[in-house]
Amino acid sequence: MFLVVEQLLNGLQFGLLLFLLAAGLTLVFGIMDFVNLAHGSLYMMGAYFAATFVAWTGNFVLGALMALGATLLLGIALEFVALRHLYGRDHLDQVLATFGLILFFNDAVRLIWGPAGLALPLPAWLTVPVQIIPGVFYPAYRLLIIAVALAVAALLYVVVMRTRVGMLIRAGASNREMIGALGINIKLLFTLVFGLGAALAGLAGLMQAPILTVQIGMGENILILAFVIIVIGGIGSIRGAFLAAIFVGMIDTLGRAFLPDLLRKVLSGAAASTAAPALSSMLIYLLMAIVLVVRPEGLFPAAKR
Amino acid sequence: MTPKLNVSNAVAVVLCAGLLLLPVYSAVSGNIFILTLFTRIVIFALAAASLNLIMGYGGMMSFGHAAYLGIGGYAVGILAAEGTGSGFIQWPVALAVSALFALVIGALSLRTRGVYFIMITLAFAQMAYYVASGLSRYGGDDGLTIYKRSDFAGLINLSNRTQFYYLCLACLFGGLYLIWRIVNSRFGLVVQGVRSNEQRMQAIGFHANRYRLACFVIAGTICGLAGALLANNTDFISPAVMYWTRSGDLMVMVILGGMGSLFGPVMGAIVYLVLEELLSQFTEYWALIMGPLLLLIVLFARGGIMGLLGRISRD
Lengths: 305, 315
Fold this sequence. Notes:
The structure holds two protein chains of two kinds. By secondary structure, chain A is mainly alpha-helical. Chain A has twelve helices and two strands, in the order H-H-H-H-H-E-E-H-H-H-H-H-H-H. A two-stranded antiparallel sheet of chain A has the order 1-2. In chain A, a hairpin with a 2-residue loop joins strand 1 (129-133) and strand 2. The longest helix of chain A has 31 residues, at 2-32. Chain A is globular. Chain B has 13 helices and two strands; from the N terminus they run H-H-H-H-H-E-H-H-H-H-E-H-H-H-H. In chain B, helix 1 runs antiparallel to helix 2 (32-57) and helix 2 crosses helix 11 (264-282). Chains A and B meet through helix 4, helix 10 and helix 12 of A and helix 5, helix 10 and helix 12 of B.
């Protein structure tokens, strides 16, 4: 029972983290119609920046904030130098160009920080377990991730649905040419949205960093997950991304936690322990395939352009 | 369609002659390394050419094409591990399994379009990757060593470097010829018609998806052959062959060389892999140069190398 609660929370935490990544991706995709494979690299850079700045300042929160700012700037610089020339191009061109950026970032990180991974130690106040319901303890840091991610999700909702910038973003998602014709500075808006997406990716990376090691290629697996999420949720839909992220986070976490035991009941011990890891890794891809076959536009498609 | 004399075709002819004569150069100069490198290049060129068939001519942007490399390779590897060393069994099985996989995922994926298609093919390839990682009997994550190359009953010796190179080259030329014939056949024209305007093709009575699916299966089968060659070349097969960055490499080769041109993918494979080799001799951080280079190619050289050559010959 306690295990179930713990795993549910883990699933929620992972799902929310995925949402941060997927939100940026779906915004950039929905508004600029831009496929950014390098989104995972921004996630990785967030983690590396955080590990560096935290070690440098000796303060976790300060270091994390600096890392967030650094990823934001990096995202804006990237958009300004290279990516803005790719808007309106074929998706394939974008895939190729940003694939090149992945190669670049991986080797740049290897050059600067070395091939070995970094660790981002947590401050003492975040390592204590918290009693959430009587008898069930949960790491404070993971609770913090849940809280921060929920706050960011709420903030994002307010910004997108209740502010003027958000209105422009939504308008941009439904008809880019039209808002340009109405005199909105689209270039600036796009740069802004890209920076926002980069910062969200960086936030996800730096929050995940203390749980996993900070290493080269950490962004690649999770990038694919983020793509799975926006495809399941419907491209360009933040609400869809949120629901799909929670869903995928839960399925992935619960699958890994409970599938081996479930399989052991059906199959022999050896067969189960062989099949379980592969099956639990496949679970989300299977889910995506099913969703796409049944609803090719995703579960919550954004309004038609 | 008779081939015209222009820069692109001249380059293609020189390319073929160069590939044919490479073992001679290698034997004369004693440079064995170049033969090893080009064996790999020829195999990847075949894989890229098969991807070009669906991507360049069929408009199906598959981001999971490396899956067939793995499937073809695992078919050879698993049969070898189970004691079936004959290539007459291994290779047809490799082709058949690849075709079957392509048929199943194609039938499902072709329900979607555009970016959704890119993503669903990616998802299926990732599934294949995880299945291979879970094959603990056959090495799991660490991969499977193939102790004996496919045996063709004395007809050809795959362990002989030169013979194996020529076998790979024959497969590449055979594959290219097949693709050329397909592209210029009625079937190929329908597939290209569907790429340009699906609704119109539907309206004049073609069952668009059946043509697409057939094309998808053919491409997968050819790539499965490349997988069987690859496994024999490295004497080893591992899930890493199917990882999504591998599919990305194949896409890069196709686009770099020029999508929708017959020799483009061959050119792309040569340039990409030679560049990778040269840069990694020059610096450990070769991707630091390769990455921005790709970006520049996308930004400034549309249509890839063959497109560039085509523009030269028009001027």
